[in-house]
Every structure is written in structure tokens, then in C-alpha cells.
Amino acid sequence: MISFIHQLEKLAAATPNAPAITCAGETVTRSELQTQGYNLAVYLSEAGVKEGDMVTVAVPNSIDFFIAYVAIWRLGATPQPISSRLPQRELDAIIELANPSAVIGMPEGSIQGRTCLPVGFRAPQRDASHLPYVTSQAWKAPTSGGSTGRPKLIVSGDPAEMDENANPPLMMDPGGCLVMPGPLYHNGPAVWSCQALLNGLHVVLLPRFDAAGTLQAIQDHKGSVMYMVPTMMKRILRLLDDERFAYDLSSLRVVWHLAEPCPEWLKQAWIDWLGAERIFELYAGTEAQTATVITGAEWLAHRGSVGRPADGTVRITNEDGQDIPAGEMGEVWMRSLRETPTYKYVGATARTLEGGWESLGDMGYLDADGYLYLGDRAADMILSGGANIYPAEIESAIQEHPAVKSCAVIGIPDEDKGNNVHAIVEADLTEVTEDELKTFLGERLVIYKVPRTFEFVDFALRDDAGKVRRSALRAERVPNS
Which run of H or of E encompasses 388? Predict the structure, then answer.
């Protein structure tokens, strides 16, 4: 095994001038990234950051995000990424949980008792040779609100080290280029970007998602690996054909998509466009108990599946925790087969069953061939007139309409049915009316799944990582729910 820091030093020594990170027209080489990261490590060390500490990183997508990670790993501390735009209440809750010795990305003095460095801070040139080499025992500690909206930390069970003799993960081709349009404070974009950096890929980072800008980045930098969530995939697909087909994507080896359910029509459209051999899907939680991967070719044979889990890592149960037959929808339970934990919660407790099984609240089923199909989060399921209705299915149908930019489906209390299906839709009312949308959905959904009520808004309902907090949307519309 080799520590992340020694791996980055090894890469910088071999090709110091190779591009490491590019963002918004600025590029930092491998040697420059190491130098600037070590400068910051000395600065943080003198401010009191030490081995085993957490350091909160509230930096938007930028080269500075990676400089911070290098500095934190160099000190044997743990990077704890958060959105740079968190509301104060949520920020306070996370700071209380993490108890970081420093916060990078906040104005000096903004958090009492913590060393705070503002966005854009670059430490002065310093000699880091006196710093001992220590390996972070947890290489990351991202946050998650889950369906409850209450923040928790998911501290990795893996140290900041890698097997230098293993094949690169995630089809990372050394010498290739990762194009990352997702926000780095989310786990998926950070994992893909860090793995790309550590395996010798050039990371091309977008400051924020832009459909045409993503394709432009692939063409300009010969992107070989791309990370997507279905929300991004839809926005790219909705570009005019003359624009979408104008870019040279021949360098692209693999498109990874994850983080939210992908509607079948959307995945089929990408397979038709780029070819099944380039489309890969991964399903896992940040907790990483297990993961499934499905290729485009496999998916065509098992439409809607997220892949075949390894034996003994996934089971489906009813409400009583009893296993149910193949094809029946139930709660998805996962477990790791390794001896050491894959993660540790701070601020939450896992839902468990005897035998090491844990649930993230997803619903799903296994088919006769052992392939996993996902429904929705159990907490988001709508019970209406005795029927279980899954918001993701309705949202998938709504998003097929070309005028819809994003949507979310929630249950609104009803004395007769228990709940009515309510759709919140980001769309221009000059392009689609409620009656038109009801007719459109009536051709795709059984009548009881067609929303009874619609609400049109002019803001995005999912963030750039494809995440939507239905519980928060419901609480805004149904106080004290």
C-alpha cells in the first residue's frame, strides 16, 4: 500500500509539468499542486491542525478544493466537505458534529473558536520538510441529510492510502482525463475526482454544471471519463441537435451515471447516442457497504436494473424483516463482506438487522437472475387510497415532457385517500399547461398515479448532484407534517 500523499509525490516526480487540475481556464500542474498543498499544510499545522483532526472544506468547485485536500492529507487529518452555500442553521449543526480544528472557505473570524480561511486563500511559500509523514485514518467525511434533512457525517472506514499495484478503479485510464461537472461537496464527484487525481488523470472541473460547457470540456481536453447524474444527462440531451452533435466526443471512453434513479427513456437515449459500451451505472451509498455496477449492454438485457450484487451483499425484506421472493418490492438491505467497517456515522445510527445488514431506506427487488431494481426511498413513498405510489416513477414520466426542467412529487394529506399525489414542476407556463401535462401523463401512467394537483415554480428542484429533498418540500407545504 502507498499513502495518497506519497502517490501524489510519485506522480509529481515522474511528470512535474503534467496538468493535474483545470478549472475555469486555470490549470495547476502536479508539482504546483504539491507545492501549494504543502504550503497550506504548514500554515494549518501552525494554526493547530494535527493528525486525526477534521478540517471542514466549504470551497466551491475550484483548484483550491484540491489544494485543501492535499494539505489535509499531508497532516494526517480528514477532509470534511460541505456546500459553500449552506444556510447558517445547517452549517452550525455540521460544525458541531465535526468539531473541525479549521474551516477552509469561510471568512476569518466567522466561526468562533475555529481557524477560518476565506475562499481564494493561498498560503505563503513555506518549507514543509519538517512535517512528519502520517496517513489519515479516514480519507474523507462527507455529510448527508438523507430523507430526514438532519445532517450527519459519514466518516470513511478507509485510510488515505491505495494499492499501487492494483488496476485503477472506475475505468480510470492513467494519462486520461476526467471531466467533472458535479459539485465536489457531494460524495460521488469528490470520489471520482480524487481517484482520477491519484491514478494519474487530468481532472477538468467545471465551476458549476453547464450542458454545452461539459461537452466543450470533453472536446477541448480529450476527456476519457465523465461523471453524470440523470439531471445532467437530461439537460445535455435537451440541447438542440445541431449543438449537441457538433462536439467531438470520440475520446470519451466511459460515462458513469449514479446518485439518482435514471428513467429508462433517458438511459436509452444516451445508449442510442454514445453506444451501450460507453454507458455505465453504479449504485451505492456513501456508506459503501456494497456497490453494483451495470454496463449498457447488461442493462439492455435487464432494463431498469442497477446491476447484479455480489452474493451475500443484498437482500430484500418485507416490513417484518422477512425475506421475500424474487420480483416482489421490499426494503433493500446491504452488508459488507470485509472484516473492517466501511464507514462510521457521526450524528446518526444505522438501521440494522442481525447478521450485519444495514438499510439506507431504499425500496427495490431482485429478479430471478439476481439483478437489483430500485423503487424509491421508503420515507418518500406515498400511500394513496391503499396503493403504494413511488414518486420517482411519476417524476420520470413528468420529465419526459420537453418543457419540464425539473420536478418533484410529494404526498399531500387528504381525508378521503390518505394522501393525494402533488407534483411540483419547474417549467414555463407559456410552454406547457396543467391540462396538457395531465393528458401527457395519462398516456404514461395508470390514472391513480397521475398527480391530482400541480404547482409550477421557476427554480430548480434538484441540485447539480441530482439531489432533491422531498421531505423539506413537503414540510413547506404541510407545516408540522
Answer: strand 387-389
